Fold this protein.
Amino acid sequence: MKKIAVIFAFFASIMVPTQAQAAQTGFMGGPLTNLDSPASIHIALSNFPTSGGLYVMQCVEGAAGMRPTVCNAAVQLWVSTDPNANFKPTADIVFKPTATFTGADCTVVKCGIFLRYDHTVPNNLTEDQFIALTFKAGTPAPTTLAPDEITATINGVTLSSKTPMKLAYRAPAVLAATSKAGAALTYQSLALACALTGMKITVLKGSGFCDIAITSPGNITAGPVTSHFPLELTLGTQTISAVSASATKKINLPKQSNFGESVTYKVTGACTVAKNVVSSKKGNCTIVASARGATDLYSPLNQRFTIKVK
């Protein structure tokens, strides 16, 4: 089953004021009133933004000028051209809100469909819009449990659902997570730039963002939940393999960097260089290694080191 790809507030507080500018996206759909629970609402979106995808959420209406803070995580959808999204922008989007969810009874308080930009457009509120829903009175409230709590780390560093961890291109990254309720967790990377194999994350770009979604199905003590952990991708660090600090008169230096780029060398001191071989008299030899970088992958190499020739 396709994982639900949603998050309440990816890069900013959910309490940030909404902007007055009208949303670009056109919303058509129904039914919107006197709904059974769960409802089945068919949505068509027009004039979909090109800057990023949208989250379709069920929320209690926020205070005037503020984003909603109480939302139904179990029914939220991700609409995007990304292959991992729940629906494409041109699809017949089927949204299934419920009359009650943790923290809200929509037969008593004002609930609705809340549209907003997804995690690929951080801090942009221009697509925020609220479409009111009403449910039939007296809809039985289901028995609900507080959602499970998920804690996750990469290389032992705790992840945040609000502040992205920076992760470099091809840097070693091992994911670990625990469920407070002891439930078995499942994992998914919601962006192609981050490959997830078992618990190993491989970053395939040096810019942009990824979203690691971790899902608990819940159990008899806790309800289901999907937690999202954003990653900010940065350029990889280009290096050459270690060179001994002392050597004899001829020194063979690496021909390629850790990313396979050809390395050139310049030397100063009691030494000369031909391609990747340094010839030296006794004394100190300072070597500068250089290699080109790759756009959106890794930075150029400019590594300086000194060796002592015996």
About this structure: The chain has three domains: 26-133, 150-234, 246-309.
